[in-house]
Write a structure and sequence with these properties.
Helix content: over 70%
Strand content: under 5%
Number of helices: 8
Oligomer: single chain
Radius of gyration: 32 Å
Structural class: mainly alpha
């Protein structure tokens, strides 16, 4: 009896050691997985930050390159039509008048730089000059939008909201229209006009379903949102 009992005890002890080793191994695997997951998440976050930084830098660089190309084109055109001292040759009829100042890309770049420096009034004047001189430029929607942003930065949300509404009504197909409409919804939300805000957020989804603002609007419409 005793040898059999001892054998049973030894078998149970051996089984317990196996189970303990298995649990320890499982815990180690879970710990490694969590560490790897945290490392992957950190890596993803760092990559997203780099993408955001590169996107902003790329857009700024594109704005600068476009302005520089515009300035070179203006100089070239001016050289072609500018009268040479002593030359009595008349400029051919139908030659379009040369711009008296910088082009839309240059105005936009200069105004955007002022906005980034916090010179909101100066930036607003630059964007307004762009709209006055080049109302049909493809940069006009952005200029109008950033006028609203400059007003918001100065703590004038009502005036900013009026400008954002103007972007939506004047340039409904522009990329900035989705941002401006979403900003209008946020303005209504802060004013406790929740029903109207939700209608605007739904309008963002309906009119601009593929925009980033559409996803933001969906988040606002979820329980606990607007």
């Amino acid at each position: 009896m005793l040898p059999a009992r001892a054998a049973q005890i030894a078998e149970v002890a051996s089984t317990l050691r196996v189970v303990t080793d298995s649990v320890r191994s499982a815990n180690e695997r879970v710990a490694r997985f969590q560490a790897n997951a945290q490392g992957d998440l950190r890596s993803i976050q760092e990559q997203l930050l780099q993408v955001a930084q590169l996107t902003g830098a790329s857009q700024s660089q594109l704005d600068r390159l476009r302005a520089e190309r515009e300035e070179r084109n203006n100089q070239t055109q001016a050289a072609h039509v500018a009268p040479v001292p002593g030359d009595t040759t008349k400029v051919p009829a139908g030659t379009p008048p040369q711009p008296a100042g910088p082009g839309p890309a240059t105005l936009y770049r200069l105004a955007k730089e002022q906005l980034e420096r916090g010179s909101h009034g100066t930036a607003r004047s630059g964007f307004q000059e762009l709209l006055t001189q080049y109302p049909t430029s493809d940069l006009a929607p952005d200029a109008q939008y950033y006028i609203g942003e400059s007003l918001a930065a100065e703590g004038n949300p009502a005036a900013a909201d009026s400008v954002f509404n103007l972007v939506v009504t004047t340039y409904p197909r522009a990329l900035r229209a989705a941002s401006a409409l979403y900003k209008h919804g946020l303005f209504l939300q802060k004013a406790k006009r929740d029903r109207e805000a939700r209608q605007v957020f739904q309008s963002v989804i309906d009119k601009y379903p593929r925009s980033d603002e559409a996803q933001l609007a969906r988040d606002q419409l979820r329980p606990g949102g607007a």
